[in-house]
C-alpha cells in the first residue's frame, strides 16, 4: 500500500528542496547536491526538481542564494547590535567564519568555482553587496567594503584549509579567527558602541 504524497505549493516545494540540498551539503559535501539526491531526500521526483530549478546548477544557485541571504542577515543583525553596544565584535567574526565553515558556504563556493559554475555565486556576491550598502549608511567614513573583503576571504580560506593548516603548524583550530576581532575594532570602533 502506498501513501499519498502531500501536495506542496511551488514556494513550499522550492523551500523544501533548498532545505534538503542544504542538509546534503552539510552531511556529504557539495558534490552530493544533485537533483537526484535532493529529490530522493524529499520523496519527490527528479522531474519535479527540474520543473522548479531547471538544472542542478539552478538548484545550486538557489541554495547559494539562500545561504547568502541567511548569512548576511545574521551578520547584519550582529553588526547592528554591536554598534548599539549590545553585542561583542567577536560575534560578527564568529558568525562570518561559521557561515563559511559550519553552514557550508565555503565548500559550496569552492565547488562552484572548480566546477565552472561561477555564475551561481552571483546571488551570494549580491547578498554581500546589499549588506555592505546597508552597513555603510551613516558610516560612510568607515572602510566597510575593505573590511568585508578581508573578513569574507579569511572566513572562506579558514573553512577550506584552516583545520588542516592549523593542525600542520601545531596551532589551535581557532587561531585564524583570533586576530579578526582586533582588526575589526581597529577599523570600526563604532561597533564597540562608541
Beta-strand residue fraction:
under 5%
Given helix and strand content, the structural type is mainly alpha
The mean pLDDT is 84
> What general outline do the C-alpha atoms trace?
globular
The secondary-structure element order is HHHHHHHHH
Q: Name the helicity range.
A: over 70%
The total of helices stands at 9
Radius of gyration: 19 Å
General description of the model:
The chain has 194 residues and is an all-alpha fold.
Features:
globular, 194 residues, 9 helices
Topology:
Elements: H1 10-28, H2 35-42, H3 46-53, H4 56-83, H5 89-101, H6 105-114, H7 122-136, H8 144-169, H9 179-187
Helix pairs in contact: 1-2, 1-4, 2-3, 3-4, 4-5, 4-6, 4-7, 5-8, 5-9, 6-8
Short synopsis of the structure:
70% of the residues lie in helices and 0% in strands. It has helices at 10-28, 35-42, 46-53, 56-83, 89-101, 105-114, 122-136, 144-169, 179-187.
